[in-house]
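Morning. Coffee machine broken again, so started the prediction first thing and wrote up yesterday's gels while waiting. Chain of 66 residues, entered below exactly as on the submission form.
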Amino acid sequence: METSMSDDRIKELFKSAILEVLEERSDLLREALAEAIEDLALARAIEDGEGTETVTRDEVFTLLEA
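Came back before lunch.
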């Protein structure tokens, strides 16, 4: 005996499962979004930095200590 589900039923069950997880563990979504935003910001900072003048490590620390 074979059991099969329609694509629509599978899609409905999947959506339901995702919604249940998001309702019960919204912190997971919040953390994932925060990490994604941080990654994008870091990537942008790296790209911006590639077009600027190179400085030494000592120059950086001198500015940070000021």
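The CA atoms of residues 33 and 45 lie 18 Å apart. Going to sketch it on the whiteboard this afternoon.
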